[in-house]
Design brief:
The structure is a single chain. The chain is α+β, with helices and mostly antiparallel strands and about 375 residues long. The two termini are about 40 Å apart. The chain contains 16 helices and 8 strands. Bound molecules: adenosine-3',5'-cyclic-monophosphate. Adenosine-3',5'-cyclic-monophosphate binds next to strand 4 and helix 14. The site of adenosine-3',5'-cyclic-monophosphate has 16 residues, from strand 4 and helix 14.
């Protein structure tokens, strides 16, 4: 057997370390930790550097620390771009094409953005605003936090509700401003004499940042102010509730971050294009189960299908015990036949599962018939 050339082996290894799935190796964890600590340290340093006292005493060491961080981030960036051809979905492109495509993925753009401040600082030295651009490095944490990684999806999921809140807020603002302008416009022409001024008053009252310098002087004015404050509480409670609930649901859906590479590695999805995989990343829930836990029980109603991202499970079927490994899936039979679960499936060791809910499964089969056909073929074989 031909040995693979050394650079390819190195690149594969680097890819495994950098673009890991779960249950990753110690090297991968170590590098993650170092990067997370550097990101946090770097952001803290950027904040500290704006305090004149600290800047005068420790400015030089903070700057040195910043340069070291940027050097590490730059090496990380170059290494990620270099390993792009190892990406399961980009393998079919020539190395340069794969790298260019990889560089335009959201996380890589954030990484590039994190390197930008140094360039800006070198071009426009001693500019306070430039120093603050360093704070964008905080976004690099999105790679490590399920919470941050899902925030974009959260806003997109809840956009209708949030837009409704903006419209309600605008309506309340205009009504309060118009009412106050009508009632006190003549009494306080300086602050409520025209609608834009009255709108500023209404906005301050709604946001409860004050409006203090403009106090209503008539009884009707005070009543309007009181109602405006109360409506303000409602206007702010609404989006908070929407975002809070959506956030809770997103977090609960994900015990770990579902990455593009993780989904692309599942053999069932390996032939899909990038857009379909990206879609799946949003659809799949992530669940970690401990060794010995039953994931589905015979006779139960089937509400989801499971893909093994890492670990192994044992199926206790009529034909005996069958072990399924990383990359396999189970729980498809109940979804396809709409009958109860045909077997009990138990985790053999700590296992990371990608969970596809029944509705999403049906949508997926609808949209990607070739995936449906492959699932059906496996189910037929098992039955
Ligand atoms: P479902 O019936 O939904 O729930 C139990 C799952 O176990 C089933 O779907 C299959 O995915 C899996 N399963 C059942 N029998 C076998 C088998 N013989 N080999 C592998 N997996 C099986």
């Amino acid at each position: 057997m031909d040995a693979e050339p050394v650079p390819e082996v190195l690149r594969q290894r680097a890819f495994q370390i950098l673009e890991h799935g779960r249950r990753r190796q110690p090297a991968s964890r170590l590098i993650d930790w170092i990067l997370v600590l550097l990101i946090l340290g770097n952001v803290a340093a950027a904040v500290a550097q704006t305090v004149p006292d600290i800047a005068s005493h420790h400015g030089a060491s903070l700057q040195l620390f910043d340069r070291v961080c940027v050097l590490v981030f730059a090496i990380e960036y170059v290494a990620r771009v270099w390993t792009a051809p190892e990406h399961p979905l980009l393998g079919q492109h020539a190395a340069l094409g794969a790298r260019l495509r990889f560089a335009t993925t959201p996380l890589m753009m954030i990484d590039a953005l994190a390197l930008l401040p140094l360039l800006l600082e070198l071009l426009f030295p001693a500019n306070a605003l430039m120093a603050l651009t360093r704070l964008v490095r905080f976004l690099k944490l999105a790679r490590y936090s399920p919470a941050l990684a899902t925030i974009g999806r959260l806003i997109s999921n809840e956009r209708r509700g949030l837009l409704a809140c903006v419209i309600i807020f605008a309506g309340v603002l205009l009504t309060a401003a118009a009412a106050m302008h009508a009632v006190e416009g003549k009494v306080q022409p300086d602050s409520l004499g025209d609608l834009p001024k009255a709108m500023w008053w209404a906005a301050s009252m709604l946001a409860k940042i004050g409006g203090g310098e403009i106090t209503p002087v008539t009884t009707l004015g005070r009543i309007i102010a009181a109602i405006t404050v109360m409506l303000g509480i409602g206007c702010f409670a609404l989006p908070v509730a929407i975002i809070g609930r959506g956030f809770y649901e997103e977090i609960r859906r994900r015990d770990f971050v579902v990455t593009f590479a993780m989904v692309a590695r599942v053999p069932l999805f390996s032939r899909l294009d990038a857009a379909s995989i990206a879609d799946l990343v949003g659809m799949l829930r992530a669940r970690t189960v401990p060794a010995g836990a039953s994931i589905v029980r015979k006779g139960e109603r089937g509400d989801a299908m499971y893909l093994i991202a890492s670990g192994a499970v044992e199926v206790d079927s009529a034909g005996g015990k069958v072990r399924l490994q990383e990359g396999n899936f189970f729980g498809e039979m109940a979804l396809l036949s709409r009958e109860p679960r045909s077997a009990t499936v138990t985790a053999v060791r700590a296992t990371d599962l990608l969970v596809l809910d029944a509705n999403d499964f049906l949508r997926l089969v609808d949209r990607l018939p070739e995936v449906g056909a492959r699932v059906q073929a496996v189910a037929r074989e098992r039955a």
